[in-house]
Amino acid sequence: MVQINDMYYALSPDEEIAASGECGGAVTSILKFLLEECIVDAVLAVKKGADLYDAVPTLITDPEKVIESAGSLHCGTLNMSKVLHKYLDGANEMKIAVTTKPCDAMTIVELMKRKQINQDNVIMIGINCGGTLPPVQAREMIEKFYKINPDTVVKEEIAKGNLVIETADDEEQEISIDELENAGYGRRTNCRRCETNIPKMADLAMGNWGVIGPNSGKATFVEVFSEKGAEILDKAIKANILKVTDPVPKGIEIRNKIDKAMVNLANKWQTRHFEESNELMNLDQYLDEFDKCIKCYGCREACPICFCRECSIESESVNWVPKGEIPPSPMFHFVRMLHMVDSCTNCGQCEEVCPAEIPLARIFHKINVELQDVFKYHPGYDLEQKPPLSVINKEPSEE
Ligand code: FAD
Question: How far apart are CA 201 and CA 150, in angstroms?
């Protein structure tokens, strides 16, 4: 019987899935199994669109189609929690299994606390993540540093601190991620600051770290984090849709070491972004940044924690942000901040869509980290721990 905290190496016995999957196809096999057994009504995963810079969230109901979503898309800077909440009605009507990077998983947890996502109907298949790459910049970086036409790239991955780029004619090149990031490329800036690489708040966490020996690259490391995760994995193993073995102790050690090294690196980036640059330290600097705003509402639309159906920024009774003014009153950002900042999971979506290039994720992440110290509240981890500033007891219909 599988139990919480159990760890395995897992791969798919199905040759086609194993070959299509990133590291042996265990995730794809589990998702397919969940659909076949009617444990879920749908799977929310990610499919390659036009090319590998185009990651598309996809709702799948036919088990035979799950294989189309196999593989890891590192330029997939997606907002799975928003898709689940806004476009799939918070899984109120459907049981859904969703692949979640840690920031997605943490945001889903925050939305579950706010009753915006139905916890009973969601299975989180966590995907370890050391960071994602912004697609447009990634193309530019590949041309500039690797001297490769980005359209010829078939695979990209971060391995041993290098970003490895592989082309269709088997050309492979790698450059240190530090070098790329010091030159302003590499992972998204919010990802560099992220301290959560293993989604412990998901039901299962799956990744390649720690898979060594003959299984290296051919299997995925699974860790169980909930009763739900244990039950699913147990059923999958008993149904023979997964081949599992115990992980090598040295592999567990390596996985822990890499995770620690990544957390240290994230802390260095936090120091660099929040302190050393001496930017965004006071109100005047925030106001300078907010003065660039063109009030496109992109940040509000993209923010998964901004879920109110009627936004108080537009309230008729309290004229927080007078109409027809550009830049808008800074209250636009301050009211929004008050609503989401205690639950900000540094997903980076606000900054990614901002046409005025306001470093929104950096601002909100910095404030969130300070709040974490004050309230001892880490967003996205513990479902029982309530966000310190937000009203969380409203029913979805009241929002
Ligand atoms: P597959 O069977 O290939 O299934 C992968 C699943 O992930 C598919 O369902 C696919 O739709 C989904 N998916 C693909 N891209 C995304 C995305 N951007 N967001 C959400 N879901 C997605 N493992 C580590 O141990 N360390 C890392 O640093 C690490 N970084 C990663 C970064 C990214 C952006 C991604 C997507 C994965 C990362 N992984 C990392 C996980 C690893 O690459 C494999 O996904 C994992 O080992 C599972 O392998 P598999 O063959 O079982 O998965």
Answer: 35
CA distance 200 to 381: 8
Nearest CA to ligand 1 atom 28: 130
11-51: pLDDT as tens digits: 999 999 999 999 999 999 999 999 999 999 999 999 999 99
Task: Report the separation in Å between the CA atom of 314 and the middle of ligand 1, taken as the mean of its atom positions.
Answer: 39
User: Whole-model pTM?
Assistant: 0.95
Nearest ligand 1 atom, CA 77: 18
| Nearest-atom index, ligand 1, CA of 209 | 25
**Which residue's CA is the closest to the ligand 1 atom numbered 18?**
76
- Residue 21 Cα to ligand 1 middle (Å): 9
Pocket of ligand 1 (CB under 6 A): 21-28, 31, 45-46, 55, 69-74, 76, 78, 99, 101, 127-130, 132, 158, 197, 206-209, 220
The angle, 0 to 180 degrees and rounded to 10, between the axes of the packed helices 283-290 and 331-340 is 110
Would you kindly state where each structural domain of the chain is located, as residue ranges?
Answer: 7-129+194-265, 135-186, 277-398
Ligand 1 centroid, distance to 248 Cα (angstroms): 21
Which CATH number, 3.10.350, 1.25.40, 3.30.1490, 3.10.450, labels domain 135-186?
Answer: 3.10.450
pLDDT digits (tens, 9 = 90+) for 41-96: 999 999 999 999 999 999 999 999 999 999 999 998 998 999 999 999 999 999 99
Provide the mean pLDDT of the chain: 93
d(CA 31, CA 34): 5
- Which residue CA neighbors atom 45 of ligand 1 most closely? 72
Q: What number is the average pLDDT over the span 130-158?
A: 94
Instruction: Quote the radius of gyration of the chain (alpha carbons, Å).
Output: 21
